[in-house]
Amino acid sequence: MSLSFKTAVGNVVEGALTYPFVKLAQLKFTLQATKDCPDLAAAQEQAVTELFELIKKHDMAPFYEAICASGLWPKPLDATLLAQLKESNTAALARFDAELETAKESAGPSEVQAANQKIAEYKAFIGAPDAAAALETVLESTVGAGPRLDNVLLLARFAFSLADNALIGKYIDRAKKLIDAGGDWDRRNRLKVYEGTYLMSIRDFTRASELFLSALPTFTSTELLQYDTFISYSILMCLFTLDREMLKSKILDSPEVLEVAIKVAPFLNLAESFYNCEYRAFFTHLAEVEALLKKDLFLFPHYKYYVREMRIRAYAQYLEPYKSVKLQSMADTFGVSPTFIDEELSRFISAGRIHCAIDAVSATIATRRPDNRNSHYRSIVQEGDLLLNRIQKLARVTDL
Fold first, then answer.
1. What is the CB neighbour count within 10 angstroms for residue 382?
2. Where is the PCI domain (predicted)?
């Protein structure tokens, strides 16, 4: 039987708040990543060890059977272990069913609800195929804004374990409606972390950074993310979106960040080197962080985009105070070759991301300040054309 239920049979919330849904998803992702990249054999071995411990600890027979069938599990299925896990699951569910029947016969609605909650949570914990349906059924009969919100957040964590962004977004929206209808301070702050993590996973880094910053001083969502993981994500999102002054005050001087500085060193080093304009070190730390992002469940789909955009930010920050600078000088500052800088800048210049020009004859980079007035003018003209087109379409409709 699951450890959560062994130690907290009478306390449904404790089991829900300590079960490692996101860790399971991260370990599964690591197995997938290492399968595609054989060079990460050590990471695969570690993930298998941790996942196997969780499977045995929580008696996860359905999950174990499914991951073996998926082809991600590098070892053959242990039939003896699977039989033991299934036997434990059957015994636990039988006991919970007996509690439910007793509650229906001799107790009130709250006891019946609690019994149904145990069954639904247990199914989620072991990875039963009908877990989502069971949790939804329990949610429908849950009374009170607080308990309903707890169950929606539980469903969101279950969706995180499936790495299903559409489902996560659905439950986040439901939770926000419940919060708007009346939610306490703690649940409101926990939801910020949930929503920020979801937004980060769909590449809305700006809104994610706002939510992470808001939750930074009062983080309590340890059921979703470990504290140092949350701080790492906060640094990455804020480094991507904040200007240097805000980055210094909100991140680099933040007591919450400094408290775990050693644990988040790669990310903090990246932010500090960017703020201090130490571009050679910045490139080194960016390569280290890129390697970590490749292994991250939420940021793997975006690591190329993130690294590219941070290089653009660094180039733009370096060029900003200059009217012109030698190509060799910029290459030396970043610790790369002039050829690399030439090719890199040429690509970003042609895409309109960096405002400068390269003089190949003199090997000089001349900066060009963006013409904001003309840019605003073009924007107004385009919006005006769209408005006129809509008015014309409306006029044709009304004439009919």
1. 10
2. 204-372
If asked whether residues 53 and 130 sit together in one domain, one would say: yes
Give the pLDDT mean for 289-298: 93
CA distance 304 to 388: 40
Instruction: State how far the Cα of 210 lies from the Cα of 222, in Å rounded to an integer.
Output: 19
Round to whole Å and give the CA distance between 30 and 44: 7
The span from the CA of 221 to the CA of 223, in Å, is 5
Q: What local confidence, expressed as pLDDT, does residue 345 receive?
A: 93
Is residue 148 located within the same domain as residue 191?
A: no
Residue 244: which pLDDT band, with cuts at 50, 70 and 90?
very high
Same domain, 155 and 23: yes
* Mean pLDDT of all residues in 110-123: 92
Closest by CA to 155, choosing from 186, 96, 198, 185, is 198
Q: Is residue 351 a part of any domain in this protein?
A: no
71 φψ region: left (φ > 0), alpha (ψ -120 to 50), beta (else):
left
* 285 confidence band (pLDDT: 50, 70, 90): very high
Based on C-alpha coordinates, what's the Rg of the chain? 26
Average pLDDT over residues 259-281: 96
Nearest to 187 by CA among 154, 143, 209, 163: 154
Q: Note the pLDDT of residue 9.
A: 36
Question: How does pLDDT run across 80-95, given as a tens digit for each residue?
Answer: 999 999 999 999 999 9
- Indicate the residue among 276, 301, 326 that finishes a domain: 301
Of 286, 312, 289, the residue nearest 300 (C-alpha): 289
How far, in Å, CA of 30 to CA of 164, rounded? Answer: 16
Q: In what order do the strands lie in the sheet with 356-359?
A: 324-326, 364-367, 356-359
In this structure, the answer to whether residues 27 and 143 fall within a common structural domain is yes
